[in-house]
Structures are given as C-alpha cells and as structure tokens.
Amino acid sequence: MKRSLPIAMLLALSLAPAARAANEADYQAAYAAAEAASEEAAGMRNQWTTTVSTLAAAKKAGDGGDFDRAVAAAREAEALAKASIVQATSEKEAWKAMEIR
Amino acid sequence: MKARTSLLLGSLSAALVALALTSPRVIAADKVDPVADAKAFQNFFFQKFPDVKHEDFVNGPYSMNEDMKRQWQEKEEFPPYEFALDAGKEMFSTPFKNGKTYADCFANGGIGIRQNYPYFDTKEGKVVTLELALNRCREANGEAPYSYVKDEMASLTAYMAFTSRGKPMDIRIPDDPRALEAFENGKRYFYTRRGQLNFSCASCHVQSPGERIRAEILAPALGILNAMPIYRSEWSGMGTTSRRFITCNSQTRAVPLEPQADEYRDVEYFLSYVANGLPISGPGARP
Q1: Which entry of B137, B201, B204, B248 is annotated as an active-site residue?
Q2: Using a CB-CB distance cutoff of 8 angstroms, which residues of chain B are in contact with residue A96?
Q3: DSSP character for B221?
Q4: In A26, B34, B109, B169, which residue has its Cα 20 to 30 A from B234's Cα atom?
Q5: What is the pLDDT of residue B197?
Q6: CB contact under 8 A, A48 and B255
Q7: pLDDT the model gives residue B245
Q8: What are A16-27's pLDDT values in tens digits?
Q9: Cα(B233)–Cα(B278) distance, rounded to whole angstroms?
Q10: Per the CB < 8 Å rule, is A95 touching B198?
C-alpha cells in the first residue's frame, strides 16, 4: 500500500501532457482566429480599441519570436473580439430598454 | 367529433379576434414618431431637473451645478473660443480662389442659419450636417476640404453658430420614409451600448447628467449639440461635433467611426431634432 502511492504518482506524472513552449504554427493559428473575429466585429461597426491594441501586441511578439506571449495575446484579442460581437448582436434589440418613451 | 370541431373552430376564431385586436398596438409601438419622441425626451429632462430653466439645458454641465455656472459666467467675460470666433469670421468672408465665398453656398448668406442644421436632403436621401455642407462648399469651389476635427472647421462653425445665438433649434423631418429611417437610426445609435466599457451615449447623458465621471460633470443630452462647437479645456482647443462623437467613442474603448459616417450624421439629426425649440448657444466652452 505504501509503495503503490509513489508508483501511482509517477504514472500520473508520466501520462500528464508536458507543457511545451508555443511555436510559430501555434501563433499563426491563434493569430488567424483572432484576426477573423476582429474583422467580423469591424464589419458590424463595433470594434473595440482593446481588440486592436491586443492584436497588435500579438503581432509584435510574434514578429519578435516570442511565441508564448504572441499566442496569449492573440487568444485575448480573439476573446475581446468575440465579446464585441456578442455585444453588437444583443444590442440590436437591447437598446430599446434604455429608450426614453 | 362535431363538438370537437366546433370547439376547435371557436378557439381559432377567438385567437384570430385577439390577434386582430392586439396587432394595431404592436404596429403603433414600432411606428417611428419623432414628435412623440421629442416630447418624451424633453419631458424626461424637465422632470428630472425641475429647477433648471428649459433654455439653460443648452449650457451643459453649467446648467447642473451652481458653482460651475458662476465660474463659467466669469469665463464668458473673456471666452476661450474668442480666437476661433475671430478666425472663423475672417475665413468666412475671405473669398476662395474663384472669388466666391461661403456665403454663396448657404441660405441667407450663411448668417443665422445654424439652427437649421443638420437637415435631411431629399435628393441625396441622407442627413447633411453643417460641417459636411461647409466642406462640400469648399470642394464645389475648388478648395481642399478641411479636417472635420481640427481648428479651421471649428472656427468656421463657431462663427456660424455665433450669428445664430438665441435662435431656437429648428430641425425638420420631411415626409420621406428615408428621413424617418435616419431619425430612427440616430436614435438607435444614441441608445446602443458599445466599446469594452459597454456604454451608450445615454449611459452618461441620460442616466447620469449632473453626476461626476472622474473630475467632470456630465452634460444632459437635451440641447447638448446647441452649444457646438466648443472650446474644451481638456483639449486645450476647439472641437467640432465630429470630434465630440469620436472622443466619446474612444472613451468607451470603442473604435470611432470615420468623421461624418452615416451613423454620426444620423445621431446628430436625432439629437438636434429632440432639442427643437431650445436656443443655439454655440460656440460654447466646457471644462
């Protein structure tokens, strides 16, 4: 019983996926997804300034070879863009709640 | 079987009658009614601030706070927009290269007409603002258009507003479905939340006028454009209506639209129409 615990822990650790550094392909994929969401938001005339600046930060990090930072920024930019799309979609009707009648 | 059929038919008839009775109400609620909108808009502010004289709403934050009003009245003795006003007067009367002037482009030679802008151009099918009309005048006379957010445009509109001071805002909505649509689009833009801060124009200027946002006191939406253009201490200079909309958008972390975008033209139309009857007070000065 005493021996089985360390063995189980070793087994669990060996099966856990090792955290690896992001590579250029990861960055390209994350950036493309963020850019597509950002373009969709811009098409709805509801772009956020933070989406633009975070996307720019992702590109800068990617161009500098810091893919971990670039992927993190691209994912954040994608989340911001998607939030702005949700906002624009819900506001198509929600604005009426604020109207003075 | 017969009983069931008659019951079904009876229910169906009752449902149709109910639908017929309720439908007109639904249509009425969705109908664009600028007159009713303007009345409701003005009443909202008149009731919210019963001690503010109606014509004082055009003075923005100064109508909301006695201390600020006194400071502003002192400031008006040497108004910060005076340089722009002088520059605007000179620009207005200086002929273009072809010998014509701005006066040739406007009714009444451009004097005392600020209260009629923006207007709905039935030929173009769009709202035309004073800033847009000024640049069109320049282009029609072979001159390059001015930036919508910089000093020259602010100076010109300052002078034109000054010649219209005290005249009641008089915006017309012609009997044209496109004009009603522009009004409705402007209204929608005004109430729509945008930017990462999830603010609409109304979040500040309907829900919170008189309240502080950081160091500033928010102006009421009613009559907010009657004072345009304005000298803002925050900007250390003059600003046009275009600049005001763009700055508001940026402050909510929304990417601003291009100056004189349809949305901005429409929201100017809406805000000006609901301020009908209130005097032009531009050019104004703001903290």
Answers
A1: B248
A2: 191
A3: S
A4: B169
A5: 98
A6: yes
A7: 97
A8: 555 679 999 999
A9: 25
A10: no
Picking from B155, B170, B20, B21, the residue whose alpha carbon sits closest to that of residue B85 is B155
B248 noted as active-site residue: yes
CATH of B31-286, one of 1.10.240.10, 3.40.640.10, 1.20.120.140, 1.10.760.10: 1.10.760.10
Task: Return residues 55-84 of A near B (CB < 8 Å).
Answer: 80, 83-84
Residue the block writes with tokens 């979609």: A89
Q: How confident is the model at residue B6 (pLDDT cuts 50, 70, 90)?
A: low
d(CA B33, CA B124): 22
User: Does residue A32 belong to any structural domain of this protein?
Assistant: yes
Residue A27 phi, psi dihedral angles, 5° rounding? -65, -45
Q: Which residue of A has its CA nearest to B200?
A: A95
Under DSSP, the state recorded for B83 is H
pLDDT value, residue A3: 63
- Helix A24-43 × helix A49-63 angle, to 10°: 160
Token pair, residue B162, equals: 């000054």
Does residue A1 fall inside a structural domain?
no
Full DSSP string of A23-71: -HHHHHHHHHHHHHHHHHHHHTT--BHHHHHHHHHHHHHHHTT-HHHHH
Domains of chain B, residue spans: 31-286
Contact A95/B188, CB-based, under 8 Å? Answer: yes
Classify residue A100: in a domain, yes or no: no
A91/B41 CB distance under 8 A: no
Tokens of A96: 């009426």
B-chain residues within 8 Å CB-CB of A88? 194
